Here is the input.
Amino acid sequence: MLLRPVRDTEEDAETVRKLAEAAFGASHALKGEAPEESVPDDRAAARAARGREKIRHLARHDPAGNWIAEDESGQAVGAAQSSVREGTWGLGLLVVAPGAQGKGVGRALLQRTLEYGRGCLRGIICCSRHPAAARVYRQAGFELHPTIRMRGVVDRDRLGPVDGPAVEGTPRDQDLLDSVDRRLRGGAHGPDHAYLMRHHRLVVADDLAGSGYCYINAEGKVALLAATSRRLASRVLRAALLGGEEGRVVEVHDVTAEQQWAVDVGLAAGLELRSEGFVCFRGMRPPTPYIPSGAFL
Here is the structure.
């Protein structure tokens, strides 16, 4: 097996994207879950293009933290993407092709990404319910915090109005976003905010009591949320859920037990809750109020 860096090219990005698609599909089958709902061709093409852009973004900003595993024939059998942002390391992706699982590919990729973050005091991983992944991350020294996934159509009457000002964010809010990041996770997301702003609606609240923000994409999935208080976190989450298309299914992933404020908002909105996976931390307590991004953490 050979490990090589992920290049900032469409070819490598598509290789990593297809590996992730195959691995996640196999993971759903292993857990007895239905495959993801099919989407129209135009939406599928747009989603694939966003996926390649995200992969290239990480490869560009963290070239030493992104790796592809190839077998003896040169076939890609696994990939991992990690990032370092101001002393906080994050694992955004670790996938192994179904036929190559259980052969040490995932451990080798994880070890290479951990080497990239060896100078970091803090680490974060969003982990699925796949038992092998949880075992490997725990053995690497991460604490596993079980998470909740919330999903459904927002009941606007039950959720009620937002309790204060929450506005559409712009690139001018970058300093505010980075300041909140540093307070909660010890490191700003920095360049990741540019990608998130291109593909998500950003809701920002900023007053004398503190600041908070929430990203939500056009498909109704909350991508990242951080705030300096539970009240502001609830405000930006409510505003994000209410600001979407009426009748659209929304999703909030990776809600840990520390985020009961988010559970309260989800229940008020009429969302269904279920146990999902883990958020893993090393060298830090779970930040709160905070909902991580799977890719940018």
